[in-house]
Specification:
mainly alpha; two-stranded antiparallel ribbon; 2 strands
Length: 147
């Protein structure tokens, strides 16, 4: 295999909270600048569309990594979002048919607030959830969302 086609060896993986902070420090000012030029509504629609598409791609990649697209497999991947106490949750139900939980602390929201981007946090992070699930399991949705 030539160096040009040699697959990259993955480096150390950043905790997701740290990755989101790096992203926010870059895209936050960009979003503000575009909103100043084309308006908040149009800018946020574009941002949400892009973030949703990225989340669907991440969901499909996650299903490949865990080896299937079941709810149990998805539940096993929750630790990535909870790394370092980034997301604290009480699991209410975890079965092959249902995953239900309450988020009791969200350091993602705290981080966006600390960066002065609390109004963008939902668009940059929270809105990823359903799209990630759609990418993880594009078949009949066990997420409760209607196609």
């Amino acid at each position: 295999m030539s160096p040009a086609t040699k697959p990259e060896t993955p480096g150390p993986r950043l905790p997701l909270l740290q990755q989101r902070e790096i992203e926010a420090r870059i895209v936050g000012p960009l979003i503000r600048a575009f909103a100043g030029e084309i308006g908040d509504e149009r800018t946020l629609k574009i941002v949400r569309d892009v973030i949703s598409n990225l989340a669907r791609e991440s969901g499909a990649e996650l299903a490949m990594v865990v080896g299937n697209d079941t709810l149990d497999a998805f539940a096993s991947a929750l630790d990535r979002w909870k790394e370092g106490g980034a997301l604290e949750m009480d699991i209410l139900e975890a079965s092959p048919e249902r995953l239900s939980f309450n988020v009791t602390r969200c350091r993602y929201a705290e981080m966006y607030r600390a960066l002065g981007l609390d109004d963008l946090g939902a668009s940059l992070s929270c809105q990823r959830d359903f799209a990630l699930i759609e990418g993880f399991n594009p078949g009949p949705c066990w997420c409760g969302r209607k196609p």
